[in-house]
Amino acid sequence: MQHSIRILFLADTHLGFDAPLRPKVQRRRRGDDFDANYRKALQPAFDRQVDMVVHGGDMFFRSRVHPAIVEAAFEPLLQIADQGISVFIVPGNHERSNIPRSLLHNHAKILIFEQPCTHLVNLNGCRIALAGFPNVRHDPGTRFNAELEKTAWKSHPADIRLLCMHQTVEGAQVGVQNYTFRSGAEVIRGADIPAGFAAVLSGHIHRHQVLRQDLAGRPLNAAVFYPGSTERTSFAEREEEKGYLILTIRAGEPVRHIFYPLPARPMVDLVVSGQGLTTAQIREQLIEHISQQDQNAVVRVHLKADETGAWISELNDRWLRTVAPATMNINWVYNWRRGGDERSGEMG
Ligand SMILES: [Mn+2]
Predict the structure, then answer these.
(1) Superfamily of structural domain 5-262
(2) pLDDT reading at 214 higher than 90
(3) Spacing, Cα 181 to ligand 1 middle (Å)
(4) CB neighbours of 30 closer than 8 A, spacing ≥ 6?
(5) Contact between 53 and 8 (Cβ < 8 Å)
(6) Residues lining ligand 1 (ion), CB within 5 A?
(7) pTM higher than 0.90, yes or no?
(8) 206 C-alpha to ligand 1 centroid (Å)
């Protein structure tokens, strides 16, 4: 009887987010949450509960991060690879040329899809082919077929084929309003996924989801698995559970998956009406509102008022931190629009 293959699949870890090496302001940093969840997500590999690890891209939160953060991120991957577990990495939109990946290139068990290619792994007599390509930023909808062709996935004999990428596929949903990607240059059509793959493993979409059909209701040739990000990277993700996937694969059978949730702190929008109030009254109102929040919350404060000039320098972010518990992240958002999900309120 053939063994099944277990794959730990995580993506969009965005390490380095709110993690300054020499902070000018002493306050709780969300970078620690990102780091902790990254390590929690990798634990099944340390415990040897999986046969391989795939990181679906956006390991870091932007294309330039301090070498110390890169080193800290690679260290657990090197340890896992030292245990003989293969680690596959898809370069995401946040990391292409600027991340010094040479630390990883020297390890035979760490394989990075620097260009379109297919890696072969032999596990328990089962030949697994992982085809993949780095994030295509411009016009992936049109270029998908060509990128896939460049991996030469068909020319490798295999029992199981997987496609690894960092892209948006038709039908993927994001945000509190369930924005759905339908068509356009940045969207890969579901119908373009060819028959022959057991599964598509993709990063990039921060909400965990599994796509099995296109928007016309036609079944996809292979399910598209998004583990989602391992932490909430913006307020648009405030209602999403975060975690990672373990996929169980057996030749000729549908891929099974289990989503393992990771801790995420509550995210709160605090809207204060300052209309017709004095600075002292606004101060009291803010103190009252803040005291009602979870002390580990990530809070962004909006004020609805026409005139904000008089009190803004007094009740600034620094002041907010003095009245909030030290365990809270809190700051003002000035460019808020009702119903907007702009990526404001992030802490740099
Ligand atoms: Mn991302």
Answers:
(1) Metallo-dependent phosphatases (3.60.21.10)
(2) yes
(3) 16
(4) 17, 18, 19, 231, 298, 329, 347
(5) yes
(6) 12, 58
(7) yes
(8) 6
